[in-house]
Each structure stands twice: as C-alpha cells, then as structure tokens.
C-alpha cells in the first residue's frame, strides 16, 4: 500500500484553477519531489493534503486511510507533517522550547494526571525531551539548543523547521522549499539529512524544491506541475529529458542549467 | 529569584501583614486587591495564555456572584456550598458560550463575548420578579466557619475575610500555575505564539481555548461568590463592562501570560482605582489612557521590567519579517 495517495484533487480560487485533477502516489520510504514554476500550485497542493485548505473534489489517503478534509491538527495526528514555504518557527522561543512545543502530541496525557503532575506525565516529558535532543543532534543544531529561534541564521532556521516536524514523529514528511535561501554547502547538508531520514528512519518524504541539484540527487521520483496540472512524472533522469518539462520549467536542458 | 518564588513570598508577606495593619480601610483595600487578583488571574488564562481577547469576562464574575446571592438569601445555603456552586454555574456558562463562539475567527469572538455579558446584564436588569432587577440582592449573609458546634470564625471582622480572600487567591494562583505547566498550558502557549505552526504539529486551537475559557470561567465565578459575600450586596453592575475592563487592564499592565503579572496589575491598578474614587467619572478614562500607554511602552507589562519571559528582540534579527503575512 502506498504511503500517500492523491486522487483527482482539484482546487479553484475564484477564476483561477490552482490545482487541477492531480493524481499521484508516494510509496513508503520514497523521496518524491514536486517541481514546477512559481504559481504552479505546489504549495496549494500541500495545503489541500494537510488540511490547511479543502479540496473542491478528489480524495487524499494516508496508508489507505481517508484523510480528505480533516483539520490540520487531525492530519498531523495521522502522521503527516508539513513545513511551510515561508519560514515558520516559534520565533520568540529558544530552539529547545520550539521542539518541546512541537512534541506536544507525545507530551500530552489525560488532563487530570497532567494537571496534578503525576509521575507518568513527568516520565513522558523526560523521554520526549531526550528524543528532542537527539533530533537536534541529527539536524546539527545541538550547539544552538538555548538560542532564541529569532537569532538563528537563515540556514539554521530551515533546519529547525525540519527538526520541529520530526518531533511530531511523522510517517510522511512534506517539505515546502526547504533549500530556498540556503548556500550550496547548506544545500548539500540538507541533501545528506534527507537521505539519512529516508535510509536511517524509513521516513517518506514529499518535497517541493527549486534547487535542481538537490532534487535530482535525492529524489526517487519527480512529479512536475504546471498551471495546476501534472504534466510529467518519472525518475529524475526521465524528467529532465522530458521536452514538455524543459519547455515549461527547466527552460534549458538540465545539464546546461546546472553548469 | 524565580517568578514562582516571588509569588510565594508575596503570599507569605500578605499572610503576616494583618499583624501590622490595624486600619480597617487599608484592610478593605487589600481584600479588594485579592478579589481583583483572582479576577485578573482568571481572565489571564484566556487572554494571556491562549491569546484570545474576551471582553465578556464580567459575565462569569456576575453569574458567580448572583448564584451565591440567590442560593444564600433565597435558599439559605451556607457560603461553603454557594462558592463551589458559583464556580460550577459560571464554568457551565463558559462551556456553552465558548463551544459556540471560540470557533469563530478573531473579531467575532471579541464582539460576541462582549455581547453575551451585555445581554446577560440587560436580562438581569429586566427580571424584576425573578432576580429583583436593578434592586439586586442586599444582606447576603457572611460565611461562618464552625467545627463540632464551635464557631471558629464568624466573619464579623475584616481579618476573617482577609484570610478567606488570601486563601482563595492562593488556590486560584495554584490552579493557574498547574494549568500553565500542564501539557494544556504547553499547547496553549504554542497556539498563542504561532497558531498555524501549532496546528501543523497537531495542536487543536479550539480545544485549548475552550479548556482555558472554562477554567477562567470557573475561577471568575468563585471570585464573584467571594465578592458577593464580602460586600453583602450584588446588583446588575457586577455584570458590567467596567469589571472586564479593570481586569483586562490589570492583566495587560501587570504582564500577560505570567503568574506574577495579574498579581502586580491587581495591586497597582486596584489600589489606584480605589484611591481615585473621588474623581469617579474620570476614573475609567484615566485608566483607558494608562492602558494605551502601557500597551505602547510596556507591551509585556510590569513583570517585563525584570522577569522577561521572552528574550528581547534582536535589532538585526534575520527572521524579524518572517512572521509577517505579507511575505510570500
Ligand atoms: N488562498 C488563496 N487564495 C487565492 N489564490 C490563491 C490562494 N492560494 C494560492 N493561490 C493562487 O494559486 C496559484 C498557485 O499558488 P501556489 O500553490 O502558491 O504555487 P506554487 O507553490 O507552485 O508557487 C497562484 O496563482 C496563487 O496566487
Ligand atoms: Mg509555493
């Protein structure tokens, strides 16, 4: 069974068909990239999948379970967690506090045992914080544990966003342009991190990204959107040779662009 | 010194203070400060921790006060039963109102919370047969504490009310502290700091707002019961906007989302309000101006002068603009 199945999902904003009858599958343990020009509907598709917007039609299933039209918080509880294209963290809080808030689902215990500070609730909190520290190590932010998030450099913020999402223990991670604004060294670190998440933790990733080096090196498959429609799908090699994709998005054959 | 220790120290100081204060008027001011501190702590749960502006808080205060007034004068129930009943009635009302209005976005909640309190006041004003309308309930009996036939405290003296108020305030602060430390407080904090991200990590803003709203309602109802039995009179003005405004000023001037803030706010605002009684009409205007100044120059309240919960924003912060919805 696929991790994520999107079936004929559409969304219209006024006169604009932002997403049109998109169908795609993401297998377990795959990294799939969603590419396409600005305004192609990639972020909108993320919103439709994660409950931040309601599709006009179509279904979304997570490991066979229908999650269409659920609220964002319900979707997160099902194990599908997204990041945002515009950097989005708890800016006033230290890094570790960001992860504590993001671990909420695992911190939470029955209201009364929690309010009365029972031992089980405290043990749970301690375990969760240990895991949060592990995640900081994994993304390489351990040094910034107590730094207020708003003081982080841009590249570190993008890593913090991934760490926040990981604290929810997702089955499926949706990242919206995580490499935007990163320098090439940071981009490579991100590629490395994504591989480690897939291979080490068996995480499934759906990635929206413009950085073609990253997309081509990390993706198992690539899906191309243009004007809300899926125009191509295949391995990175197939997609970058596809004449329609070159015309709509890559502009020039990929090798030249990368050079 | 941590915030909690300061709160404990203040409570301990308050506990020994009557030994040095004989003046009945000063005792009265302190008792009213305890009352206002309870009221603003209860409002702080929703305004400070969840970040929803409720302008109808006086409704829950008033429901508690009226519950106590009716049950003690009409049904002859003792204070010790009226007090929890006041909390239950106010909490139930908060549950009903919150379940409907907290789903509404932003401004609607603010307006409807205000409308709820005003409608309630209007209804009480006009229920002359049932709730004595504008006459209100005079002669609400004082509590009495007895054990095995011996009266331990008859509440004829202000000192008894002083310690009752202090005990209720301590209980209210304890409840607020536990709330803030629980995973509910954690979720509420996330919602206040970044609602969209909170939802993305699985936190339900509505559920958190509702729990805080009901807890705030219960505590306001209890404060209302204390108010009724201390002043021995309850009329429709307990449902009035001026109580909400006073409590809001205390929360904002003291410091939102902190334990100490509403306490400091109640002391500063409550005592000043009391001292300004002579210029009655101008009082709220003066405080309106103070509120605006506080929001402009001390947005995190008096507590931020020393105990900042949040670090100061860095001047050249790289992410300063990132929360802005204008960036896309
Ligand atoms: N909430 C909205 N209301 C109106 N139009 C929207 C909304 N969200 C997205 N759009 C429009 O849908 C189109 C696709 O946008 P988006 O999904 O952000 O594209 P991408 O992420 O691929 O750059 C754009 O033309 C955008 O203006
Ligand atoms: Mg986008």
TrEMBL record, chain A:
The keyword Membrane does not apply. SUPFAM superfamilies: P-loop containing nucleoside triphosphate hydrolases. Signal peptide: none annotated. Keywords: ATP-binding, Nucleotide-binding, Transport. Residues 4-252 form the ABC transporter domain. It holds the Pfam family BCA_ABC_TP_C. GO terms for biological process: D-alanine transmembrane transport; L-alanine transport; L-isoleucine import across plasma membrane; L-valine import across plasma membrane. GO terms for molecular function: ATP binding; ATP hydrolysis activity; L-isoleucine transmembrane transporter activity; L-phenylalanine transmembrane transporter activity; L-valine transmembrane transporter activity. InterPro entries: AAA+_ATPase, ABC_AA/LPS_Transport, ABC_transporter-like_ATP-bd, ABC_transporter-like_CS, BCA_ABC_TP_C, P-loop_NTPase. GO terms for cellular component: plasma membrane. It comes from Roseomonas indoligenes. This is ABC transporter ATP-binding protein. It comes from the Bacteria.
UniProtKB/TrEMBL annotation, chain B:
It is a multi-pass membrane protein. InterPro entries: ABC_transp_permease, LivM-like. GO terms for molecular function: branched-chain amino acid transmembrane transporter activity. Keywords: Cell membrane, Membrane, Transmembrane, Transmembrane helix. It is found in: Cell membrane. GO terms for cellular component: plasma membrane. The keyword RNA-binding does not apply. Its main location: membrane. It holds the Pfam family BPD_transp_2. The chain crosses the membrane at residues 46-67, 79-100, 106-124, 159-177, 209-227, 233-252, 282-303. This is Branched-chain amino acid ABC transporter permease.
């Amino acid at each position: 069974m696929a991790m994520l199945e999107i079936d004929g999902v559409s969304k219209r904003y006024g006169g604009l068909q932002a997403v049109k009858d998109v169908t795609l599958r993401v297998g377990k343990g795959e990294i799939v990239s969603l590419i396409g020009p600005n305004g192609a509907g990639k972020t909108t598709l993320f919103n439709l999948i994660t409950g931040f917007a309601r599709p006009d039609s179509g279904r979304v299933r997570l490991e066979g379970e229908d999650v269409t039209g659920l609220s964002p918080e319900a979707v997160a509880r099902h194990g599908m967690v997204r990041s945002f294209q515009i950097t989005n963290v708890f800016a006033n809080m230290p890094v570790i506090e960001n992860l504590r808030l993001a671990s909420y689902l695992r911190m939470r215990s029955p209201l009364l045992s929690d309010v009365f500070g029972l031992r089980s609730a405290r043990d749970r909190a301690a375990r969760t914080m240990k895991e949060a520290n592990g995640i900081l190590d994994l993304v390489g932010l351990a040094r910034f544990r107590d730094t207020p998030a708003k003081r982080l450099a841009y590249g570190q913020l993008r890593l913090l966003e991934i760490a926040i999402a990981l604290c929810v223990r997702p089955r499926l991670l949706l990242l919206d342009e995580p490499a935007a604004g990163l320098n090439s060294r940071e981009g490579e670190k991100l590629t490395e991190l994504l591989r480690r998440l897939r291979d080490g933790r068996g995480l499934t990733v759906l990635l929206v990204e413009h950085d073609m080096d990253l997309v081509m090196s990390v993706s198992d498959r690539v899906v191309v959107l243009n004007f809300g429609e899926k125009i191509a799908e295949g391995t990175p090699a197939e997609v970058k040779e596809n004449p329609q994709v070159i015309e709509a998005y890559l502009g020039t054959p990929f090798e030249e662009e990368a050079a | 010194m941590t915030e909690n220790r300061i709160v404990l120290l203040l409570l301990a100081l308050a506990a020994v203070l009557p030994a040095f204060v004989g003046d009945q008027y000063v005792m009265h001011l302190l008792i009213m400060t305890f009352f206002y501190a309870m009221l603003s702590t209860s409002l702080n749960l929703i305004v400070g921790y969840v970040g929803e502006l409720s302008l109808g808080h006086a409704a829950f205060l008033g429901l508690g006060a009226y519950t106590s007034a009716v049950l003690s004068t009409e049904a002859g129930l003792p204070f010790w039963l009226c007090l929890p009943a006041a909390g239950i009635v106010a909490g139930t009302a908060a549950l009903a109102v919150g379940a409907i209005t907290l789903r509404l976005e932003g401004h609607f909640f603010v307006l409807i919370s205000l409308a709820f309190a005003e409608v309630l006041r209007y209804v009480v004003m006009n229920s002359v047969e049932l709730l004595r309308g504008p006459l209100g309930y005079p002669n609400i009996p004082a509590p009495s504490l007895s054990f095995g036939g011996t009266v331990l405290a008859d509440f004829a003296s202000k000192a008894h009310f002083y310690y009752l108020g202090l005990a209720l305030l301590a209980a209210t602060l304890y409840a607020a502290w536990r709330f803030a430390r629980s995973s509910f407080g954690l979720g509420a904090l996330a919602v206040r700091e970044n609602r969209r991200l909170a939802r993305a990590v699985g936190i339900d803003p509505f559920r958190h707002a509702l729990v805080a709203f009901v807890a705030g309602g219960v505590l306001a109802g209890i404060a209302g019961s204390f108010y009724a039995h201390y002043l021995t009179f309850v009329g429709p003005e307990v449902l009035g906007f001026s109580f909400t405004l006073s409590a809001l000023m205390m929360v904002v001037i003291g410091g939102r989302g902190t334990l100490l803030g509403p306490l400091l706010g109640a002391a500063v605002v409550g005592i000043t309000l009391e001292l300004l009684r002579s210029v009655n009409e101008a009082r709220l205007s003066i405080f309106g101006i103070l509120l605006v100044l506080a929001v402009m120059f001390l947005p995190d309240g008096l507590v931020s002068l020393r105990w900042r919960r949040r670090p100061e924003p860095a001047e050249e912060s790289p992410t300063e603009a990132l929360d802005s919805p204008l960036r896309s």
